[in-house]
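Student: I would love a firmer grasp of how sequence relates to backbone shape in proteins. I am handing you a single protein, as its sequence and its fold in token form. I am told such tokens are a discrete way to write the fold. I hope you can help me see how the letters and the tokens relate. Take your time, and here it is.
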Amino acid sequence: MQIILAIDSFKGCLTSEEVEAVLAQVLTFRGATVHSLPMSDGGEGMLEAFISALHGQIIQTKAHDPLMRPILASYGIAPDGTAVIETAKACGLTLMKAEERNPLIATTYGVGELVAHAIQQGYRKFIIGLGGSGTSDAGKGMLQALTDILAPNGTINDVLTSQTAGCQFTLASDVRNPLYGKEGAAFTFAPQKGATPQMVNELDRRARQFADSSARLMGKDTSTQPGAGAAGGLGYAFMQYFNATAQSGADLLLDLIKFDELLKHADLVITGEGHADRQTLMGKLPERILQRARKHQVPVWLTAGQASDRQELLNAGFARVDSITPEGMSIEEAIQPETAKQNILRWIDQHF
């Protein structure tokens, strides 16, 4: 059999590569020809997946985390002149302990440092992954860093008119929310970043205020565009100030690796993620893979750490929907990497 492995990370547990390595080893031993494709929809693991697809390399530079502590942060560069930035490497939720999380003070400044470093190295084409942020500053920190580094004592206008002229930004994100309002960044995402109800209201007020002043400055307003609310409004800052375009992170990656060509020779696709449920069908990576595979009449198996709404997923077209976690096992135990690997091996034994 020709089997494609296109599995997203099991968030907080195993990377895409780690999940696929366990499966590939056994499937190859049992006679299958396996194509392992590192996957990400723009969130965790995005940098590695996209740089693999672009045959690039990962470099490090000094930056600051969401609490302005010095860190070494990674971004990617590709032979075609593209810089790949996974924003969570500089403003990610996982860079802070649970008790440190406070989106009123967390900043995207480090993201601006990464962009500025790439610009200084001569890169003008950017793919920006917007998942996993711990911030809700509407990208103000990012803009401040670009100004501090590229136009000291100047303004963001000085950055726009000289340093970033000719730059092209593509946002890899599946978030469709606007910047503010009940469906916006603060109300939708800030509570999981440590915000209290009072903080949410304040963050939303700040976002509206920033959008108003930015509209006056730029003569346009992108705050209601789908994806403006991604990464706590960081998507908005890229759209408003740099004319960034938002694309499905999953589709962007699948196009880069010429996934549809690979499907022509495949007998089976195995996809998955940490937790699959009806939200998987709202444009997440496994759903995008399913839609492409169906055009080539290739069956798709969905395997997840946990799978809910199984019948809905089967009705949508997945040939199999399985949880690898045995019934009765606690989440705390299931997300231990070695436990998860054993659960994957048990699942393979059951089905191959």
